[in-house]
Amino acid sequence: MKIDYARFGATVAGRVTTLLVDEGDTVRKGAVVARLDDRQPLARLDDARARLRMAEADIARDETLLNRGVVAVQALERAQQERDQAAASVALFARQLEDYTIASPLDGVVMKRNVEPGETVAANTVLFEISSTARKRIAADVDERDIAGVRMGAPLAAHADGFPDNVFQAKVTNIRRQGDASSRTFRVEADLPADTKLMIGMTVDVDIVTGERPNALLAPPSAVGYGPSQGGRPGAPYVVVVDQGHAKRVAVETGAVGPAKIEILRGLADDATIVRDGPDRLKDGESVRIGP
After folding, report:
1. Phi-psi group of 215: left, alpha or beta (phi > 0 → left; psi -120 to 50 → alpha; rest → beta)
2. 224 and 278 in contact (C-beta within 8 Å)?
3. Nearest Cα to 7, choosing from 158, 157, 110, 151?
4. pTM score > 0.85 for this model?
C-alpha cells in the first residue's frame, strides 16, 4: 500500500540542537520538526545588519554634507552602493539562516526519525520520513504484457496476509505512462477509503479486473496443461476430460489467467468433467475413476 510521503532533512550540514517530534507524532505542513546549531549563520546575519545600519547612517550624513557643499556627489553614490551591498548580504544571510530550521513539507504522521539530539548530520541526509494519511493508495506493478488491458476506473481487489478474511476493493485512479525498464512493469495506483484497515507500508496482492464476460467458463490452473514449449513460451494449452470413464486430452484456448482461475474461451463443453490435478500424468484412453 502506498500513500503520499516525504523523506527529508536539512540542506546544510550541522549539529542537531533541537528535536520537536518523535515517531508517531502528527505534524502540520510548515511545522518546525528540528533545528540545527545556527550560531555562526546568526552571527553573520547580525554583522550584515550592523554594516547595513552603518551604511544608512553614512548616507544620511553625506546627504547633509552634500546639501552644505562639503562633499561631492560621488561620495554619496559610494555610500549608496555600500548600503545596497549590505542590504543584499542581509537578505542572503537571512535566507541561509532558514536552512538551519527543518520544517515538515506536508501534513502527516512521523513514520521514522533517523537522528538524535546532538548528532552532527551531513547536508541532504534524510532525517525524517513523514506520511500523509489524508490519501491512502494501493500501488501495484503490472507486467508490461498486461498493462494494455488496465483501464482507469477498473475495479480491483486487494488481499493482505494481515487481514486474511478481508477483501479490500478499490478502483484504478492512476496509470503511470512510463514504465520501469529493468522490471518491465508499469505502476498502477488506486485510492482507498479513509477508514480502511490496511496499514501504511503493508504488502498486498492485487487482482485488477481487465474485462467482464457473463457466464465465463473457468477452470483451476492445476487442470490446464501445456504442450512442449516453443521459443521459450509455454506450448498449446489443453485439459483432460473424462469421457465414458477414460481420459481424453482436449486442446483449449485460454483467456484471462488469474492465480485461482483460468478462463477457457473455446474447446471445452460447459458440462464436461475435467481432471482437476496433473493432466500431464494421464494418457489418452487411460481409465479414470471419478471420486466422490
Report:
1. left
2. no
3. 110
4. no
70-113 tens-digit pLDDT: 767 787 788 889 899 999 999 999 999 999 999 999 998 999 99
CB-facing half-sphere around the CA of 143: CA atoms within 13 A: 3
Cα 130 to Cα 235: distance, rounded to the nearest angstrom:
49
SS (H, E, C) 127-189: CEEEEEEEEEEEEEEEECCCHHHCCCCCEEEEEECCEEEEEEEEEEEEECCCCECCCCEEEEE
The residue that leads in pLDDT, 262 or 61, is: 262
Do 251 and 280 meet the contact criterion of CB atoms below 8 Å apart? Answer: no
Q: CATH number for the 39-98 domain, one of 3.40.1350, 1.10.287, 3.30.1490, 2.10.260?
A: 1.10.287
3-class SS of residue 91: helix
Which CATH architecture does the domain made up of 134-208 adopt? Beta Barrel (2.40)
The three cell numbers locating residue 112: 521514522
∠ CA 264-149-229 to the nearest 5 degrees?
Answer: 50
